[in-house]
């Protein structure tokens, strides 16, 4: 799910609005700048900086009784405008989640995103107005279980200049399964075993200004050769259709028009 702060001004008259696709690829969280209030010995907070969805952070078993904080020291001049979370239990454990930040090391933390309750454990994007912060933290209020989370991203969103209208499968509906069908000698159906499940989709972007591709898209494409990213295809209309994705083929721009405008195809699979 993507949660958009009221501080983000979204106008339908602008070239970009709340339904332009967003990509959360910039990652400022590192093993050395992230910390948690508590952590299980085998699942420390530094795992949040690893893009793997297997290695994770877990709070201590008794920690549902108190607030947990996942903190990242950003300490840079360039603004940030999103926090991404994946492979968590905040929905099933009914854990209220909010975002707090401070501008300098001496400031107190203040709330920039109000507490949210989620209906499932799908990836989450918190989007807020771009501001230069010293530190951000995710506040996890007490829930039914000790909290856990595998991925924490903090950075600046890539907002695509063109919206997607037709021909796109939302990532959470792009089911791809590898199955074994059991049949008897007489051809009777004897059951079906799912061997592997995943979700896949693709997005085609056309008429991209050459300057936009070179300045904004090419750094993402280079990064995505190795690292996953958060993806929301139409955030304002379909906020629940968010994925934590990785490319399944090389993204190669094509010179589309004589004026230099470009086309790009993104094929991806992911966790929803």
Helix and strand arrangement:
Blueprint: E1 2-4, E2 22-24, E3 34-36, E4 57-58, E5 68-73, E6 80-88, E7 97-102, E8 110-116, E9 124-131, E10 135-140, E11 148-155, E12 158-159, E13 175-183, E14 189-208, H1 210-224, E15 229-232, E16 242-247, E17 254-255, E18 262-271
Largest sheet geometry: 8 strands, antiparallel
- The quaternary organization reads as single chain
- CATH level-1 class of the largest domain: Mainly Beta
**Separate helix tally:** 1
Structural class: mainly beta
- Per DSSP, what share of the residues sits in E-state strands of 2 or more residues? 35-45%
The residue fraction in helices comes out at: under 10%
Radius of gyration: 20 Å
Q: Architecture of the largest domain, according to CATH?
A: Sandwich
Number of beta strands: 18
Please mark out the parts with pLDDT under 50 across 5 or more consecutive residues, or reply none: none
CATH homologous superfamily grouping of the largest domain? Galactose-binding domain-like
Query: Strand-and-helix sequence, N→C?
Result: EEEEEEEEEEEEEEHEEEE
Output the CATH topology of the largest domain: Jelly Rolls
Question: What is the residue-mean pLDDT, rounded to a whole number?
Answer: 91
3D shape: globular
Integer count of domains: 2
Spatial gap, N to C terminus = 9 Å
